[in-house]
Amino acid sequence: MVLTNPDELTWTDTTDFVVVGYGGAGVSAALQAAEDGLKVIAIDSFAGGGATAMNGGIFYAGGGTAVQQELGIQDTADDMYNYLKLEVGDVVKPETLRRFCDGSVEDFNWLMKHGVKFGNTYYPHKTFYPPSGYFLYHSDSGLAATYAAQTPSVPRGHKYWHVANNQATGFGVYLTEPLQKKAQSLGVTFWPRTEARRLIMSATGEVLGVAVLRMPEGSAHTEKYIEAQETARTLLQKLPSSMPGFAKFEAKAERYWEQAKRLQEAYGQWHFIRASKGVCLSAGGFIWNRKMLQANAPKYVSNMAMGSPGGDNGSGIMLGWSVGGATAMMERVSSWRFINPPAQWPKGLLVNAQGKRFVNEELYGAAIGREMNEHHGGRGYIILDRTLYRQSWKSAVWENLFPFMRLPLILALLLQTKKGKTLGVLAKKIGVSEENLRASVKRYNESAQGYAPDEFGKSAKECHPILEGPFYAVDVSANSKLFPCSAMTVGGLRVNEETGQVLREDGSSIIGLYAAGRTAIGLPSNLYVSGLSAADCVFSGRRAARHASAAEV
User: Fold this and answer.
1) Pairing of strands 509-515, 501-503
2) How many Å from the N-terminal Cα to the C-terminal Cα in the chain?
């Protein structure tokens, strides 16, 4: 919608700053803007929280956080920067990464000031998620020898404090809810069940506001709309999207989405919100939009979608694109092939569909997942000997694991593992080249026995010779039905890294339009580590708000 004169439209609402999507990035933007004195309206298609509220509750921070200091863990912004530049690459400018690291402690303190609590027990071992009762751990590849040789190994994965429980997800509410509460106390107006349909622009290309469709509060039709939405979301969470039977739940959910859409079209009320300081798009990525995923990142369609079911549908990205915003890295997906726990699996070797080893098994799951999906067709088998296999079972049964970690592990060992008396028999059972498998194991054993350095740089202590049969192959492919490989998109709108404004193809900034979180290109757009997306949401949301509050009207 383009206006020759802003006054030609009857604006139903007027504010300074509008936030579209009220998850981690959105609430950070709204709260910062309110602190800076702006009048803010935040909208969300659902009840708020987004993918951030549904995640595992990890926040990546360093440089000497209060928790690190309390535990006597030495860290500096320089060390954090030197590590993250290995992960982030060139997806953001060095000075942007520098600002993120230099400001990490301040972001951490800002969260605590507004009611976010962090635990202070340290788990020093490699794992993709800390056991119950632990709140600080190595949430990246820092313990791997290839990284430790370049920068100190420092735990930076901070988990929000909570009473112990066995749930798999949803710990992110310990970030979003305190921030929402504080934002409300500062006057932020929140409209749930409200969908941004289009941006409103001036003839000169400035974003003036946004047109939204809002379900009226207290209406019986709204109650039916909410029931349809939440039923659809519940159905999509019944099974991982990679498992047999998910398609039936997806089809049933689609009927509820259609019901919600009909109610919205019939009873939703149009609001035209004038935003004098700008609009911030923070509506997540597009992992739940399967058509958009197929078009942009087809290698990852078989991965399990993570994020907000029904949300993370690309709507924020498409809104920005509709007014000339440039997108980039839309093919980029963070796909997590976690193989630790159990601690024994990374001591084996991971081979592809040709029987060739292809990665350092001790790396963080996103590094393994990207290599497997991008270059090996999403196929992977962990090769174990009798000792590692038996120890894996002991770990699966007796270790302090959350149920969401234990069950897939046991199912994989029971139902996705092939056994062979010899490597030749095993190769035939999993359909790989016997010659390649034998050669891969031979080279690996030479490293494990100290005769040669590991070809992928794995730590010597993590290399276990595969000598004693029978031998086992655990299928950990991306399309695994029982041991799913979860994923989220990390491409999106290009932004001015100084301001957070959305960029056009020619590199110019769209005045009045910002993007944050997974709607935008950010720190996790190269190689994700646990907690980095949440940290980037806070960083980018606050960046957008700060610029908007300082911008001239």
Assistant:
1) antiparallel
2) 21
| Closest residue by Cα to residue 103 from 501, 542, 525, 544 | 542
Nearby residues of 64 by Cβ (< 8 Å), 6 or more positions away? 75, 76, 77, 105
Paired residues of 18 in beta bridges:
41, 279
CA distance 490 to 331: 8
CA 262 – CA 267 distance, rounded (Å) = 8
Contact 88, 97 (CB under 8 A): yes
Phi, psi of 281 (to 5 degrees): -90, 115
Contact 303, 478 (CB under 8 A): yes
Residues 150 and 211 placed together within one structural domain of the fold: no
Q: Looking at the structure, do residues 531 and 501 belong to the same domain, yes or no?
A: yes
Per-residue pLDDT tens digits for 133-147: 999 999 999 999 999
Position 243 in a domain: yes
**Global pTM value:** 0.94
Would you say 21 and 316 are in contact if contact means Cβ atoms under 8 Å apart? yes
| pLDDT tens column, 101-151 | 999 999 999 999 999 999 999 999 999 899 989 999 999 999 999 999 999
Calculate Rg over the CA atoms of the chain.
Answer: 24
The token pair at 308 is 């907000």
Number of domains composing the chain: 4
Over 244-271, what HEC string results? CCHHHHHHHHHHHHHHHHHHHHHHCEEE
Side chain identity at 109, as an amino acid letter? Answer: N
